[in-house]
Specification:
By secondary structure, this protein is mainly α. It is 69% helix and 0% strand. The protein has ten helices and no strands. It has helices at 3-7, 10-25, 32-39, 43-46, 53-76, 83-100, 102-109, 119-140, 151-170, 181-196. The radius of gyration is 20 Å and the shape is elongated. 34% of the residues are buried.
Amino acid sequence: MKRGYHHGNLRQALVDATLALIADKGPQGFTVSEAAKVADVTPAAVYRHFSGRDDLLAEVARQGFDIFAALMEYAYDNGRPSPLAAFEATGRAYLAFAQKYPGHYKAMFESGLSPADHPDLAHVAAKARGVLERAAEALSLQLPPGRRPPATMFSAHIWAMSHGVVELFTRGNGGNTQFRPEELLEAGIGIYLRGLGLLAADR
């Protein structure tokens, strides 16, 4: 009896196999046949659950964004203990996720998938973005209405900064700096918030 069927959850067995292959070969470096082999099933069995490799990668990415959104929600904690602390916590959650779930992270951001082609993936990715946008909006309320930056732009800047720090360290270049990724992100967020007038200059 094939192991995937014995486990009773072939779909998840294929996702787990894909995560193992991503760790070894990257999100574009394996075939459906290889995923089937790792899951100990026939290639034909894969197509009972997924239309192809992109569909399989999309499910890995969807599960990753689901985990990511939950971590972001936990970090944000409805703006507690303060809008600033909650906002900074979401940035740290980004780094923590990338470090703990590297296979999911690569499927989410390095697979070349278009969320528009995978509605379930697009939905959960928007959910994760929404947490950061809420955090940005709550923090920007400290400014007069005419000076508040759009929450979508504000959060996208922090997302890009967080992503850049992750990429710097996951690509093996982090050893060129004496700073830890958390320190780089905290300093970058601090500079950005001061520029917006959301953080006192002497903090």
